[in-house]
Amino acid sequence: MSRPSFEVESLVWGAPGGFLEWFRSAWQPGEHMAVIAPTGAGKTTLVGGLLDLRRYVLALDPKGGDSTLTGLGYPRLSTWPGERQLERLVAKNNEDNLPSRFVVGPKVSRHEDHAKLRTVTKEALDGAFDMGGWTVYCDELQIATDPRMMNLRKEADRMLIAARDKGLSFVSSYQAPSWVTPHAGKMATWVAVSRTRDTDVVNRLAEILGRPKAEIRGAISGLERFSWMIVGRDPNEQIRVTIPDEIATVPREALR
Questions:
Q1: pTM for this structure?
Q2: Which of left, alpha, beta for 115 (phi over 0: left; psi -120 to 50: alpha)?
Q3: What is the pLDDT confidence band of residue 254, given thresholds at 50, 70 and 90?
Q4: Region 8-249: CATH code
Q5: Domain-by-domain residue ranges, the chain?
């Protein structure tokens, strides 16, 4: 008998046998992830917990001083140090048995600072691609890729399309699929979505994952507030639903 196409498993975030334990083994190096949700859903809170599963992380800050990224507690690299200097930082952390996780980008207070922010973001995307092995998180991908803003779609697409063999994972968050490069969804092995009535999100997610629209719509409509649906590219795999433990301690106005 064939397996039903619609199957949802609810997993407790940090419990033994829960979501994080499952996803740690399921999320392989070189696999990308797209996080799609409106403002206030807790995108950065979700991603922060996921990034803790990886030892080498570069979190790009296209807003130039985003408070939620600062809240991750990572040291900030206001300028791109270059590959050799970064390798020295990593070697020192390895000696101390510490992960290497950084926020990349200067804090922007003036309009003229945005040119420097774009340069540092581009250098980080290029450098990470050349080095391989990193997990790169781009918060609000539309800012980095929109031609009216940073115009770094070519760099983002290269990472999404050609970085898998380098063991490099690209995690992107954004509010709507139509706002960003289509490769963000099409090249993602994993997609995380919060509760939404946005028809475009449902339709694009069904297209990206090769699953029936009714299945996706039903799963999303059943989500509680601040819970997340995580879907893999295998249409026969269960849909997982979870809610980060951190949500309970984060002020609702701080969630994105």
A1: 0.91
A2: alpha
A3: low
A4: 3.40.50.300
A5: 8-249
